[in-house]
Design a protein that fits this description.
Elements: E1 17-27, H1 33-42, E2 55-64, E3 67-76, E4 83-86, E5 91-94, H2 95-103, E6 108-114, H3 118-134, E7 140-146, H4 158-167, E8 171-174, H5 183-193, E9 204-207, E10 210-214
Parallel strand pairs: 1-3, 1-6, 6-7, 7-8
Antiparallel strand pairs: 1-10, 2-3, 4-5, 9-10
GO cellular component, one term: early endosome
Main location: other
GO molecular function: G protein activity; GTP binding; GTPase activity
C-alpha cells in the first residue's frame, strides 16, 4: 500500500490487478508542468528546466490497496507560439493545433497554472473548457496551482481557484515541484478517483478507457501486449 501518496512500483504482494491510464498535463509555458512530472516520477527538481517541445512521455505507478495504477504521462508543450516543422510538408503548424493528438484518449488530465501569474490561470480555464468540450466525457480533470513556494508573489487566490474547481467538478490542489508540496498527493487523488473495476470475466478488460489486468488469472497471449510486466 502506498504511504502518504508516495509513488510506488508493484511488488507482487497484495496487488491483484494493474490499471493503466493515460494522463496528460496541459497549461501555459513555464508554469512547471515538466517539473511536476520530474518530481513525481524521479523525485527530482531542476531549477532551470528546458521547455518541452511537442510532448514528453514518462510512466509511474501508484499502489492503492489491491490495485496498482500505472500512469502513462504525456507532458505537453505550453507555447501556442511554438511552431513545429514537418519536413514532409515543409510547413509550420501551431502547437495548439497538435494538442488534441496528446489528450485524445486520455482518461485524466492535470491542468497547471502558476499562482504568481494570473494570466496562466485564465489560460488554465481555457484548457479546462477545451477538455470539457473535446475530451472523453468521463475524463478526470485536476487543477494544479503550481509554484506554491512563491506565495509572496501570489497573483491567484487559492479560494478563487477552489471555487472555480468545485463549480467545474475538478480536483484542486496547490503544488510546488520545488519543495514537493502536494505533488505525489495530487497524483494519488487522481488515482483514487479513476474507475478501476473490471468488466466481464476475462483476464483483461477495459473500464472507462483503462486497461485492466488481473495478475491472478492466466495471461491471454492472443491479445498482444498488456500493461502488466
Amino acid at each position: 500500500m502506498a504511504s502518504r501518496g508516495q509513488p510506488q512500483r508493484p511488488n507482487g504482494s497484495g496487488q491483484s490487478k494493474i490499471c493503466q491510464f493515460k494522463l496528460v498535463l496541459l497549461g501555459e509555458s513555464a508554469v512547471g508542468k515538466s517539473s511536476l512530472v520530474l518530481r513525481f516520477v524521479k523525485g527530482q527538481f531542476q531549477e532551470y528546466q528546458e521547455s518541452t517541445i511537442g510532448a514528453a512521455f514518462l510512466t509511474q505507478t501508484v499502489c492503492l490497496d489491491d490495485v496498482t495504477v500505472k500512469f502513462e504521462i504525456w507532458d505537453t508543450a505550453g507555447q501556442e507560439n511554438i511552431f513545429l516543422i514537418l519536413p514532409s510538408f515543409c510547413r509550420y503548424l501551431r502547437y495548439h493545433s497538435l494538442a488534441p493528438m496528446y489528450y485524445r484518449g486520455a482518461q485524466t488530465a492535470i491542468v497547471v497554472y502558476d499562482i504568481s501569474n494570473a494570466e496562466s490561470f485564465q489560460r488554465a480555464k481555457a484548457w479546462v473548457k477545451e477538455l470539457q468540450r473535446q475530451a472523453s466525457p468521463n475524463i478526470v480533470i485536476a487543477l494544479a496551482g503550481n509554484k506554491a513556494d512563491l506565495a509572496n508573489k501570489r497573483m491567484v487566490d487559492a479560494d478563487e481557484a477552489q471555487v472555480y474547481a468545485e463549480e467545474n467538478g475538478l480536483l484542486f490542489m496547490e503544488t510546488s515541484a520545488k519543495t514537493a508540496m502536494n505533488v505525489n498527493e495530487i497524483f494519488l487523488a487522481i488515482a483514487k478517483k479513476l474507475p478501476k473495476s473490471e468488466q466481464g470475466g476475462g483476464g483483461a478488460a477495459t473500464q472507462g478507457g483503462a486497461r485492466v489486468v488481473d495478475i491472478n488469472k492466466p495471461a491471454n497471449n492472443s491479445g498482444g501486449g498488456g500493461c502488466c510486466k
